[in-house]
Amino acid sequence: MSLPRLRPLAVDSAIALGFAAVGCIAGAYYQPPGWRAFDGPGYLLACLTALPLVARRRFPFPVVLASAAGYAVYLGCGYQPSVNFWAPAVALLSLAGRRPLAVALAGAVPVTAVIVLSGASGRLHPALTAAQAVLVPVVAIAFGHTRHLLVRANARLREVSAELVAEQEARARNAVTLERMAIARELHDVVAHHMSVITIQAGLAETVLTSDVPMARKALGDIARTGRGALDELRRLLTVLRVRSDDDGEGTPYEAAPRLDRLPDLISGATAAGLDVRFTARGEPVLLPPIVDVCAYRVVQEALTNVIRHAPGARVTLTVDRTPDEIVLVVRDDAVRDDVVRDGSGPGGRDGPDGRTRTDERPETVPGTGLGLIGMRERVKICGGRLSAAPHDGGGFEVVAVLPLHPSRRTFPGEPEGQER
Fold first, then answer.
1. Cα–Cα distance measured from residue 136 to residue 57, given in angstroms and rounded to the nearest whole number
2. Both ends of the chain: CA-CA distance in Å?
3. Which of the residues 59, 261, 302, 379 has the least number of beta carbons within 10 Å of its own beta carbon?
4. Verdict on whether the full-model pTM lies above 0.85
């Protein structure tokens, strides 16, 4: 038996022995005339009245019955009333503290009966007997039921605390999952863009290796620069995961993610991959929230990557329109296709079953994963913005992203909340 369970048992045993000892002592030394002499059966009955209190916590209702029955037999044998009177009252107090009120009221019936019997045996005034028969059970039930309510409230509080702890742990696990998804998205954007550029340049270098050595050399130089750029961005991203000790003597870590002010470098890489990018910026520069800044850069990066994959050599118009309330990004290419296979990620998906787009006017495309548009939509949705990606009239493909600078702006003007373009 464990120590926490031994302590209540020891307390209950001490209480039971105390009532038994006091009852025996009172019966032995206080023997008024008119009652039976306190002999061996008297000692036994006094103990049988008090000792059931040992089990008052585990079996409160049987203890009430046993104690009341023992005291009733004690009085019926003609012994003078003594402090045994309080053993059934204590048993009733324990019953009210551990069982519902209805059970406590049922237990009050035998206790009230033996109190009345005790008053009658002691030849007390009927009014005093009635007062004892009412007050003792009422006080015992009142105190015991109050304790019962407190125990239930504490149990409920423990349950709520456990639920809160479980909810906090679930939120922590969800936060870890979301962080991993964000990291995976960042890795996809970095690797997909730079590897697409490197693949196109490698194919160009292989094609003109013998016929145009300067062009091949330039393509290899672009591959080297793009590779270094990819490593630089990966290093920035992995810096977020890197745990630095207090005694780390290294300098300031790289930025965690690129921002919109690095668009010229991004356009330069896309131009080196063979695209003809025309960039237009409108509006006064405004301070962007970090999440919007990173999202805008990644959307443009993924849109240019898709053009490199599916329409190498196309002419691209990139427009960044800044207002005090939102920033609008438009990436549009002029590639003409005979067929566009949707990738299942929404209107305008480009990746077919084999990751290629069929066209008679462009070089062979680069295989894709079909996750580019999905990633862009997720990013824009997190920022409270909207994304439209679809072929436009006259051929080509257009990506439009509207990113609000304030949390309350979540839809295009004139569109209801939750409607997707």
1. 20
2. 69
3. 261
4. no
